Amino acid sequence: MRKLIIVAVILLIIVSCENKRERIQRDGEPEVLLVQPEDAGMNAAIENAKKTFQTNFHPALISKNPDFSNFAIKQRFDTQEGGEHIWIGDIVFDNGKYRGIVQNEPVNPLDIKLGDEIVVNLDNLSDWMYYDKNVVKGAYTVKVLRETMSNEEKKEMDSQGLIYE
Fold it and tell me: 118 near 99, Cβ under 8 Å?
């Protein structure tokens, strides 16, 4: 779970800002990357996550395969500025709903906070991921952001021992 939190927090996305890939620094928190709502790469990643959720994520989650771990869903939450995308981890599927724990401290005022247990609203799904041993499945928005990282940032991310397909 620690690896998921590190990856998720570093790569938190907030939509609707003025400067593409602007960064917000917060005391005691990893930086936040901002993405414009018109970002074609990010929008394509979100659409891909939505299209593959039921065929890839759900079967893996319910399979109980011991090689699979760190299931997470990224959900968009509406804000006055547009929206904030937050990872929900420790996902369980119960009674037809996905529940999990909020993995990021929201930047904007929201009705949720880090550590809250919530029911995921799949209408607002923006990404999903899980680990197959050390291979990251899904994480489409993470991959888009990775393309814009410096070599130093990529090296730090790679030091976690994860492989992004």
Answer: yes
CA distances from residue 73 to 23, 54, 58 in whole angstroms, order as listed: 22, 12, 11
Distances (CA, A) of 48 to 8, 19, 148: 18, 24, 19
Nearest to 46 by CA among 82, 73, 78: 73
- What is the spatial distance between Cα 38 and Cα 84, in angstroms, rounded to a whole number? 15
Token digits of residue 157: 């991310």
DSSP string, 79-114: ETTEEEEEEEEEEEEETTEEEEEE-S--SS--S--T
| Residue given tokens 């991921």 in the structure block | 129
Alpha-carbon gap, residue 22 to 47, rounded angstroms: 23
Question: With contact defined as beta carbons under 8 Å apart, do 146 and 156 qualify?
Answer: no
pLDDT in tens, 79-130: 887 889 999 999 999 999 999 999 988 888 899 999 999 999 999 999 999 9
For the beta carbon of residue 56, count every other beta carbon within 10 angstroms.
Answer: 15
